Amino acid sequence: MTTLSDHLDDLREHGDLLEIGDRVHWDTEAAVVATEALRHNCAALRFDETAGRVAYASGVYAGPDQISGRENRPWRRIAAGLGLGHDVGCVDLLDVLSRWETTPLSEAVLLDPAADRDAGDDLYALGLPGVDDAGRQGVTQGVIAVERDGTTTWAPVRGTVHRGSTLRVVVPGAVDEWFEGGRAASVSLGVEAATLVAALQGWTQDRTVPAVPERAAGLADVPLARVDGRVVPASAEVRIDGVADPTDAPVSGPEATWERATETATLSFEAEGIRLREDPTVPFVPLGAPLADDVHLMSLVEAATLYRRVNGYWGVSPVSWVQLPVESRLGLCLVSSEILYAGFDWQLANALFSFSDYFDKVLVLDEYARPTDLARALDDMWVKAHPGNDWVFSDPNAPAATAPVYRRDGETGSRLYISAIWDPRWDEDYIAPRVTFESSFPEGIRESALERWEALTASRAGDDGIEDLPPRYDDDAASRGDGA
Amino acid sequence: MTVDGFRGYLREVEARDDLVRIDDPVSWNLEASALTMLANENDGPIPLFESADGARLVGDPYRGSQRRPWDRIALGMDIPPDASRREFYDETIRRLKDQRSPETVDRRDAPCKEVIETGEDVDLLDYPWPYIHAGDGGRYSNLHTLVAPDPDSAWIDYSYHRVMVHDSRTASVLLLAGEQTPNLFYYKYERRDEPMPVAIVVGADPAVQYSSVMWIPTGRSEAEFAGGLKGAPIDLVPCETNDLLVPADAEIVIEGEIRPDVRRDEGPFGDYFGYMHGPRRSMPALEVTAITRRTDPIIPFCVEGTGVGHTENSTSSMEIGCVGPDATLGLRAGGFDVDRCVPWQSTPRTVYVISTDATAPGELHELANFIFTTWGMLHVDFFVFVDGDVDPLDQRAVLEALALYADPDEDFHQFGVASMPKVPLNIYQTPDEKGNAQTGTSKAKTAKAYIDATRDRDDDAEAAAEAADEETRYWARTLLAGAGADPDGLPGIDPTEVEP
Questions:
Q1: pLDDT tens for residues A391-405?
Q2: Phi/psi at A474 (nearest 5 deg)?
Q3: Contact A143, A258 (CB under 8 A)
Q4: Interchain CB distance below 8 Å, B270 and A416
Q5: Helix pair angle (B222-230, B85-97), 10° resolution
Q6: Are the Cβ atoms of B491 and A40 closer than 8 angstroms?
Q7: 3-class secondary structure, A183
Q8: What is the mean predicted confidence (pLDDT) over A260-278?
Q9: For a FRET experiment, which of A125, B48, B209, B250 has its CA 20 to 30 Å from that of B475?
Q10: Which chain B positions have a beta carbon within 8 Å of A456's beta carbon?
Q11: pLDDT tens digits for B417-461?
Q12: How far apart are CA A259 and CA A270, in angstroms?
């Protein structure tokens, strides 16, 4: 279990957290700084000097874009937040997220809430950062907990502060239906990655699963607490208790990514009490910015569900990995798979279109494509797929995808899949081997070159700090092969 | 100030601690390329092999850093390597407009004449041309400038065609019809049954190397463009066995002629798109007549196919740093409203990204049509158009535009599914489709496409919502730099002005 506080310490230890010591105003200034940090692949941020009672953090579950650097792993902060370390491979992460393991509440870790300091009921006093120019404080990363018939669920929220005690939040529409009217609820801010992932898995995927606390506990031993009969994340930095009622009033500001493919409803949440940890930190997301946390979280949750479904549908598990690159804001899906028979690429691409509403473009790669090399995967799109034969468009009657900005009116259109695989009709001799270190040199040359290069860089390291070579293979490559 | 030739360039690289000298013997037979590939993939220093079977080799000397693939191209032109993307493009374009006439120097003053080998003394195998990938068809010289004349005018073309060594005096040259020098050979010299005199200039001034990968308009002096890039005249000297003038400070000049109706095997080769393409094919044969050189020449080479996706060798860096600005200038000169034309960093010769504010109906089609029928005919399969406010060198931003703004219904435009020419350097055609045509293009035709990833008017409001004004964004970046963010990654931030 990795609380947000643990996670921030861990990022700091790994040089992946910058402390912003200057005073930054909550009204969009913090969001602009956070956006620039994301846009330029900076570390996560902690804003130490704020006007309110909480410090801010941003980018804590975001990461660098993979395409700009060979070693970049966009998912590394989420993986670290899940307690999986900084070096976990993409496929291993997908495996963990797609298991959907649960821990019964009776077996989960129950603690007293860490947020035990009474902070009244004035939301404005928190000084939560706003992310648009409407001048409202906002909630951009957190969960709402509500109980019904002895079952507590957690759901993702996005919202804005409207009066000192009123928070208006967007939730998945199914949550509103599950509520059946007004109920006591808690909004938790500054929670673990597992809590956010479980809430998205519970309410934004193909079927709703209200038992989210059980899933969070199953995913990463998230400690739980009981407050007024409902279960809440025990380690939350801030907990706002109150009553939530459905409302038709809108919530201003840019949408979170999960809202793009999920029907939503709005709740008016009347705060009755605010509880804080000591020196609380509230992560926020500059929604609409590239590479923001909401994009990363939804990308992984959606990819894990698709990975589970396409590997559980035909009685075999041919798919090596699925990605919805954060760089594409989920508008593109990459799938690496064994091609079981001629036409399987078409079948696979169209199954993915059926299973997700986000994208209308799928790139099919062979099983040798590495999930850690997006640039190379895209290279296959451009050089391996025949520009006339392998860019395949459907008839124009497909539903509009939700990630792209076109056809938001729901007008139907075409989908595109690109088949960057070898033509199954080809003779083996036609297939071009990849140029890699491993394929280009005999073993003796490779070993000798590696030794010499390591010696050379080591001898320079004293002068200029050149680091050792990274390992030739990562876990993903080692387990999935590295090409012909 | 200008860079003092290829050696001066290497000194500049070394002065920045970006070059490593390898004194122990290294073989041309895969060893030098293996070490170079490691350097390329790990963003390491440029390897200079001091003892490579009797001579010196340098692996991928123009490879840029992974974060700024144009930085060593800039260094070769004495442009500050920390120039921003836009500053580098603008300065390169300015220099291309400011051409300088070359000057002819006496043979005695030409370093490339320190040793002159003619007649029986000529032996290509005296030099450590590298065997680059296991599976290549042979040893290659693949980082040089091929100098060839138009038989009907005074025009001399500089171009870049790899050469596979066969024996002491013979090599095959990859000439693909559709490009300037190959067209001169196939449609003028060979039709007249005449040999084409050539000089292969190895290790010339960086500006000469850069101009050889650019598409300089037919009839224009490439030496003058090279002088513009260098900011000073290029010194030329006459060849020994033909009438060509060649850069005087080159490391090696191979003189010879490409014979009509004589072919030699060429390939396969691990090529720029990251695959070992084949099959072996017949290409025009070069008969070597003289080799002139410095006493201790340095032979540069490129490990093609490495760093695919991350611009990690000399040719991919030259595509970004040289071809991009040249193409931008060419399109503007053609009357097109182009902000910048940039090779897609991951796949630089197959895909180009053009940022433009063009809005007139049909303008993108006309632009793509122009390119596909001219310099983009053979290698380029795709163009991606993005708005003028999208940085085409930012692959993340381009991928985002592609995913979010390019509607499969309306924005993907294929040009004739099986009607367009293609070089056989591809992996999506079968060997039968590629064939072994006399002029080097594939037997089967193919398709090309352009993708309109610009925003529609209705999308503008949403896109604008995320953007703060530049002044505020700059302030934010200064705050990040002050907090310890790497200033190299923050546009507009001068590392020397960041307070610790």
A1: 999 999 999 999 999
A2: -105, 180
A3: no
A4: no
A5: 130
A6: yes
A7: strand
A8: 96
A9: A125
A10: 20, 22
A11: 677 787 788 888 887 888 766 677 787 888 889 999 999 865 544
A12: 23
* A37/B480 touch (CB, cutoff 8 Å), yes or no: yes
**pLDDT-derived band of residue A471, with 50, 70 and 90 as boundaries?**
very low
The reply to whether residue A445 touches residue B31, judged by beta carbons under 8 angstroms, is yes
DSSP labels, B216-227 = PPTTS-HHHHHH
Residues of B in contact with A12 (CB under 8 A): none
Interface test with A, best of B396, B410, B422, B457 (most A CBs within 10 A): B396
Instruction: Report which secondary-structure segment, H or E, holds A335.
Output: strand A333-337
Query: Strands, DSSP E only, in B321-362?
Result: 340-343, 351-356
Of B17, B24, B483, the CB nearest to A18: B483
ipTM value for the complex: 0.94
Q: How far apart are CA A124 and CA A176, in angstroms?
A: 26
Six token digits for residue A421: 């695989």
Asked if residue A262 lies in contact with residue A172, where contact means CB atoms within 8 angstroms, the answer is yes
B161 vs chain A: nearest CA distance in angstroms? 20
Chain A residues closer than 8 Å to B402 by CB: 328, 332
Q: Which residues lie across from B103 on neighbouring strands?
A: B235
The verdict on a CB contact (< 8 Å) between B30 and A441 is yes
Question: Using an 8 Å Cβ cutoff, are B425 and B453 in contact?
Answer: no
| pTM given for the model | 0.94
Give helix B324-333 / helix B85-97 axis angle, nearest 10°: 60
Element (H, E) at B89: helix B85-97
**Cα separations in angstroms, B201 against A106, B160, B229, B468:** 78, 10, 18, 51
Q: Can you point out the beta strands (E) in A60-174? A: 117-118, 138-139, 142-148, 151-156, 158-163, 166-172
Residues of A in contact with B308 (CB under 8 A): 375-376, 379, 435
Nearest CB among B306, B382, B447 relative to A435 is that of: B306
The alpha-carbon gap from B243 to the nearest alpha carbon of chain A, in Å, equals 40
- A-chain residues within 8 Å CB-CB of B427? 383-384, 432
Rg over alpha carbons for chain A, rounded to the nearest Å, is 23
Taking CA–CA distances from A286, the nearest residue in chain B reads B466
CB spacing of A384 vs B305 below 8 angstroms:
no
Which positions in chain B touch A325 (Cβ < 8 Å)? Answer: 399
Q: Phi first, then psi: what are they for B328, rounded to 5°?
A: -60, -45
The secondary structure element, H or E, covering residue B324 is helix B324-333
- CA-angle at A129, arms to A123 and A131, nearest 5°: 125
Contact state of A382 with B344 under an 8 Å Cβ cutoff = yes
Q: Pairing mode, if any, of strands B276-277 and B269-270? A: antiparallel
**CA-to-CA dists, residue A130 to A8, A63, A397, angstroms:** 22, 21, 40
CB atoms A434 and B31 under 8 Å: no
Residue B84: its pLDDT value, please?
85
Among A18, A385, A450, the residue with its CB nearest the CB of B485 is A18
Using CA coordinates, name the residue in chain B closest to A403. Answer: B404
- Can you tell me the distance from the alpha carbon of B135 to that of B152, in angstroms, rounded to the nearest whole number? 40
The first and second tokens of residue A108, run together, are: 């989960």
**What's the token pair of residue B463?**
């896109």
Q: Which segments of chain B have a pLDDT < 70?
A: 1, 416-417, 436-438, 457-467, 495-500
Find residue A434's DSSP bridge partners.
Answer: B275
Q: Which residues in chain A have their CB less than 8 angstroms from residue B381's CB?
A: 382, 387
Look at residues B419, B128, B412, B425 and name the one whose alpha carbon lies nearest to residue B297: B128
Q: Which residue has the tokens 């404005």?
A: A124
Helices (H) and strands (E) in chain B, counts: 14, 23
**Interface test with chain B among A35, A36, A360, by most B beta carbons within 10 Å:** A36
Type of residue numbered A41: N
| Phi (first) and psi of residue A187, to 5 degrees | -105, 125
